[in-house]
Amino acid sequence: MEASTVAKVLVEKYIAYFGAPDYLHSDQGRSFEASVVLEMCRLFGIKKTRSSPYHPQGNGQAERFNRTLLDMLSILVDGNPGQWDDMLPFVMLAYNSSVHESTGVTPAIAMLSRELRFPLDVQIRNLSGREAHRLPDYIQET
């Protein structure tokens, strides 16, 4: 990925919504070490850090996330690997809605201070009180 693309995505998809982070930690990939990314960090007051070469443990959280993401995607696209990009949003929704052992909360709670809504949540909310009360029994029956 080009460094200009990295900088553009960081500004348009992250900083525009959540503000600039205090730190940006990456491996020593060219895309993250290029002058355009370093200048973006300077402009936004972001401290740029990097892991040691050939030592992925220095970026352990990202490495663990990548492993989990690949595991989840491989289950969904089993037999149809060409569909990974179609499945990615659903994998991210599942990941961001799952309680993480290290934090005790979902990434949605940590980032947005609220849980994510699913279509089923909307349907349950639209049920009358009597129907919603019977929902656990209905689920148990099926």
TrEMBL record:
Annotated Integrase catalytic domain residues: 1-115
InterPro entries registered for this protein in UniProt: Integrase_cat-core, Retrovirus_Pol_polyprotein, RNaseH-like_sf, RNaseH_sf
UniProt record, GO biological process: DNA integration
GO molecular-function terms, A-Z: nucleic acid binding
Gene name of this polypeptide: pol
Protein name: Pro-Pol polyprotein
